[in-house]
Write a structure and sequence with these properties.
The structure is a single chain. By secondary structure, the chain is α+β, with helices and mostly antiparallel strands. It has a domain of 242 residues: 2-Layer Sandwich (Nucleotidyltransferase, domain 5), CATH 3.30.420.40. The protein is built from 18 helices and 23 strands. A 7-stranded mixed sheet has the order 17-18-16-15-21-22-23. Strands 3-2-1-5-14-13 form a 6-stranded mixed sheet.
């Protein structure tokens, strides 16, 4: 029918976002709910799986109240990668999830890098504390009773799929981030699973992203308000879904998203096994291509941090309009002030969780606006470093799409265009991973092919072009950033 809707459900680092996407690619309704991240120590980041479920139920009840349930034909999922959820044989969750931001497994990561590089070669990506493999090793070493009691090992969205439908399924994009999957075969690797201290039967089967995995059970429908029997596709990890939702599916388009983390993704035809240092090679949502990821762990988080710092001076968190107002009169290059956005370690191209953030080049002449603009520019320079790393590997980048929270700032968008020296096309819809999940759900219905749905659904709100007048100052600031980051 012309007015049928597919739902996209995305579990981000800080909130669940739900969108209803019409057949013509427009958004009919949307809702979101936040949940907490617990930081019991500086290197730890945990979330409660029940919090995800409660947030989902609240968001879907709000959304379904605005929709005709008969028009909702399918749902697709997306979620933050590498959140470990252990569940026992009775379906009881065994403690909080160690999410992707958790860095406590640095020792295990170093040991894997030193002693098991040959086994890890099949992943075609560098090992990182972000991944599931070292997280499971940490649990085996420090909390063996949890591993021993686990019947299932889920990731975030796959746990939600199981709660919604009872089905056990993941997708290749999600699985490829874990450091447990052979990228070439798109299958769990026996040696890596053994290193994790688990059995392959505890992991979810890897299914196509746009194939129905299960249907909403009566019990789940009563809690969420979703229709009983609604088909649910496994969708993709947030990188694969945002690639779809931003149009980084065809070769040549690179998507930059600035949520909690900054993701820079591009579609690449499948390549032979091998690591591209500083980048993560992942499966895309189609079997004939990969999704290459450049990561800025504290992309949007750098701005959230700056807002929170303002509380100590003004008694409240600064909002985005405060930041824009402070920075708008500061010239390009921030008069020599430079910020390294490594608040959660450095991702691409450094892959160094221990590298620290900081300001440089400061003097008594600098004011609050300089500090704000320097953060905007520091993240933009890290985006440029990601694109340059892609191009060093021969990845074709013809067009830049920008989306999510950071794209709501016209100033930041212009700074990114100036830093890249490229036109930046801002995607109209903010929640691109949720949009991507809804697109995958529509493809799963079999009524439309994925390319056509993407073409209808990815819309450009505006274009920012590099300002020639800013070029010299930006280049000088970039050189300062490069020297301080020690990576160019």
């Amino acid at each position: 029918m012309a007015d049928d809707l597919t739902l996209g459900i995305d579990f981000g680092t800080s909130a669940v976002k739900v969108v209803a996407l019409a057949a013509d690619g427009t958004v009919a309704a949307q809702a979101s709910r936040p949940y907490a991240t617990y930081k019991p120590a500086a290197d730890r980041a945990e979330q409660e799986p029940q919090d995800w479920w409660d947030a989902l139920c609240a968001a879907t009840h709000e959304m379904m109240a605005a929709l005709d349930p008969a028009c909702v034909v399918a749902a697709g999922l997306s979620g933050q990668l590498n959140g470990v959820v252990l569940v026992d044989a009775n379906g009881v969750v065994l403690g909080r999830s160690h999410i992707w931001l958790d860095q406590r497994c640095a020792r295990e990561t170093a040991e894997l890098r030193q002693f098991h590089a040959d086994a890890l070669a099949v992943t075609s990506s560098p090992i990182s504390p972000i991944a599931v493999l070292p997280k499971l090793q940490w649990l085996k070493r420090h909390e063996p009773e949890r591993i021993a009691a686990a019947s299932r090992v889920f990731q975030v969205k796959d746990y939600i799929l199981w709660r919604l439908t009872g089905a056990l399924a993941t997708d290749a994009n999600e699985a490829s981030a874990t450091s447990l999957m052979d990228l070439g075969r798109r299958a769990w690797d026996d040696r890596l699973v053994e290193l994790a201290g688990i059995d392959a039967a505890q992991l979810c089967p890897i299914l196509p992203a746009s194939r129905m995995a299960g249907r909403v059970t009566p019990a789940a429908a009563s809690q969420t308000g979703l229709p009983v029997g609604l088909g649910v596709a496994p969708g993709a990890g947030d990188t694969g879904a945002l690639g779809v939702g931003c149009g980084a599916f065809a070769t040549g388009t690179v998507a930059v998203t600035l949520g909690t983390a900054g993701h820079v993704v591009a579609s690449v035809p499948n390549r032979p096994q091998g690591i591209a240092p500083g980048l993560w090679r992942m499966a895309h949502v189609a079997p004939d291509r990969e999704l290459w990821l450049g990561l800025i762990p504290a992309g949007g988080l750098s701005i959230a941090w700056l807002r929170r710092i303002g509380r100590g001076f003004g008694g409240r968190d600064l909002d985005f309009s405060d930041l824009e107002r402070l920075a708008q009169d500061v010239p390009p290059g921030s008069d020599g002030a430079v910020f390294l956005p490594f608040l959660e370690g450095a991702g691409t191209p450094w892959n160094d969780p221990a590298r620290l953030a900081g300001y440089g080049g400061l003097s008594v002449a600098h004011e609050a606006g300089h500090l704000v603009r320097a953060v905007y520019e520091g993240v933009a320079f890290n985006v440029r470093a990601c694109l340059e790393r892609f191009e060093q590997e021969g990845v074709v980048l013809d067009r830049v799409h920008l989306a999510e929270g950071g794209a709501q700032s016209p100033l930041w968008c212009q700074i990114i265009a100036d830093a890249l020296g490229r036109d930046v096309h801002v995607v109209a819809e903010r929640d691109t991973s949720a949009i991507g999940a809804a697109i995958l759900a529509r493809a799963a219905t079999g009524t439309d092919d994925l390319d056509s749905v993407i073409a209808r659904s990815v819309r450009i709100a505006r274009v920012h072009r590099p300002d020639p007048a800013a070029r010299d100052a930006i280049q000088a600031s970039l050189a300062l950033f490069a020297r301080q980051a020690g990576a160019f």
